[in-house]
Amino acid sequence: MVRSHVLVCGGTGCTSSGSHQIIAALEQEIKKNGLEQEVKVIRTGCFGLCALGPIMVIYPEGSFYSMVKPEDIPEIVSEHLLKGRIVKRLLYSETVQEDRVKSLNETQFYKKQERVALANCGVIDPENIEEYIGYNGYSALGKVLTEMKPSEVIDVITESGLRGRGGGGFPTGRKWAFAAANDADQKYVCCNADEGDPGAFMDRSILEGDPHVVIEAMTIAGYAIGASQGYVYIRAEYPIAVSRLQIAIDQAREYGLLGKDIFGSGFDFDLEIRLGAGAFVCGEETALMTSIEGHRGEPRPRPPFPAVKGLFGKPTILNNVETWANIPQIILKGADWFKSMGTEKSKGTKVFALGGKINNTGLVEVPMGTTLREIVEEIGGGIPGGKKFKAAQTGGPSGGCIPESLADTPIDYDNLLAIGSMMGSGGLIVMDEDTCMVDIAKFFLEFTVDESCGKCTPCRVGTKRMYEMLSKICKGNASLEDIDKLEDLCYEIKAGSLCALGQSAPNPVLSTLKYFRDEYIAHVVEKRCPAGVCKDLLTFEILPDKCKGCTLCARNCPTGAISGTAKQPHIIDKTKCIKCGACMEKCHFHAIVKK
Amino acid sequence: MAKATGNLPFSGTPEQEAELRKVIAEHKDEKGALMPVLHKAQEIYGYLPIEVQTIIAEGLSVPLQEVYGVATFYSQFSLYPKGKYKISVCLGTACYVKGAGDVFDKLCKKLGLQSGQCTPDGRFSLDACRCIGACGLAPVLTVNDEVYGKVTVDDIDTILAKYTG
Fold this sequence. Notes:
The structure holds two protein chains of two kinds. Chain A contains 24 helices and 18 strands. Chain A is an alpha/beta fold. Chain A has a five-stranded mixed sheet. A five-stranded mixed sheet of chain A has the order 11-10-14-12-13. In chain A, strand 16 and strand 17 form a beta hairpin. Chain A is globular and about 90 Å long. By secondary structure, chain B is α+β, with helices and mostly antiparallel strands. Chain B has two domains: 14-73; 85-164, Glutaredoxin (3-Layer(aba) Sandwich), CATH 3.40.30. Chain B has seven helices and four strands. Chain B has helices at 14-27, 34-45, 50-60, 64-73, 93-97, 100-111, 156-164; strands spanning 85-90, 124-129, 141-143, 146-148. Chain B has a four-stranded mixed sheet with strand order 2-1-3-4, with helices on one face. In chain B, helix 1 (14-27) packs antiparallel against helix 2 (34-45) and helix 1 (14-27) runs parallel beside helix 3. The longest helix of chain B has 14 residues, at 14-27. Chain B is elongated, with a radius of gyration of 18 Å. At the A-B interface, helix 1, strand 10, strand 14 and helix 17 of A face helix 2, helix 4 and helix 5 of B.
């Protein structure tokens, strides 16, 4: 009889910080103490709090051990698992109170969260289909195939108000209805798991933590629109997700939940994985389909929309991983339940990948309408080092920067668009006073220049020109006229590009111009980078009171720009300095600063 | 994305070619087989020199220019060999705001490489990669399959030393 379950996070974050070593050490210690029959170790998906990895939770107590090291394991096994004494010293410090130990759900990080898409992540073993079934898995599919007509399925999804979680926020039910209305000998259901937004990892975490939910949801959609084949297009950069999804597909086939005559209903559906190969544009639906067909992932003009003419020229629906993860619960709990969460036009929850300058980096799922400030300051635990919250970037290279002054805006699709950003897939990067907004805009443009597929001119040439203008500003060579030109160009590119990549590429520039124009002007007029990031506008200086005259900097300067006599403060000749930073790196006394 | 091509002579073995031909035979009748075959070919050879692309083009009856077009479109496919130790620095947004750019510059300087290049002794190659999704550990770099998180400029020497012994 198993009396204790030890859940160890096996997501990418915790695996990178060594959770596999923790599992190995646990299994060894449990064996040594003869507890194999009583304690079960389970490798789960992501718990969300990646900053504290590796994470381990022991049930039934719900004790939350964070930043676990292999050398802690013998103590945890002999004290907690053998003698029942929780090792308070190793718990996540916020859960330890004087008289009691708080559970996971009472912590700041989890308290405000509402887990729908992430319901099973960090709860079940993703490589075991029976655990998924134990949590109501595949019962939505059963209900759909045995009790509902395809049109009823679409009605429920439409009624729920679910909108696509991948970017644009198109109503999911409507998309399905379009594809269902088109007669064809073959239709397809696709899953977009090509999560290209730098800083977004919710789709990966769902696939790693709960792969069956995607399989179940796609099968439901197959029934609803009359498709018998599905494809999951997934980034090759996500090896753990790919292998867990493959295991899940194999298990589902073995259990008769994929393949011929599912649930004896006469309905056939099967799935295949296709690997992406590192092209951001393939997150765009028509480009993704072109890529599955085996070509360069270039987008196609719409119309025809994929619901009419998609993959291999057949009616196709494409939804992203997080959208799929909502489907089975909507079927089981009903549209009214889903509608009860969120704002008027954005129902349900949204998963955000919190990253950047924030204490609790990780995955959070909150009801739509939660404010940015709640996410950053309460759930995220604020900015490290007592720095000031300056802005948050949502939507990746297609989104924009939201300044601190708008942090009380309730987050939903329409509000984000109104303030010049977008939901995107849900990356949320927090920036503090040390982040230069011009440099960030340049960073995103460098990304889009690299990732533009080159098919249409506004995007191919326009983004490159924008990047050059931004570089000029960062180097202090631009005039105020250039800022106006840059802004004009943004609108031209938005209007003229073929697909969403180009149409949204100017967003990072437009939003920073709107909210942080003074920083652009400081770069241009005063030749100064207020955040101290843009190298060409910085000067290196030696603080005379801290310099010991050890000559180390002078000996390391590649251009001989530093002079001075031993044991006397040195000086940097600014005309010779190439700002390489070698002196600052070598100085033992922190006597060199950049301004 | 602009691609560098290798300057080293092709040194594929007959075993590798036999394996590739087997892969081609398995996928030949599949719809959209080119991408999966290129992935497998890169697993076999480590990269996709023109010789390998030619075998694929003939095997799948696809024009060579189309194979080349696809191979150069996607950043995961490489036309040049990688080092024994492949270093990738994540330059995703989360890593970038936490200083991954400085880490990358330091590696370039230290190894005398630019992004996509390989040291003459074939030991290290350096790439700037897209988000690997380990944003909680930003900034992140990987050496082959080993992940290093919360890397600072000062850690570079220690990390490189592990692979130069």
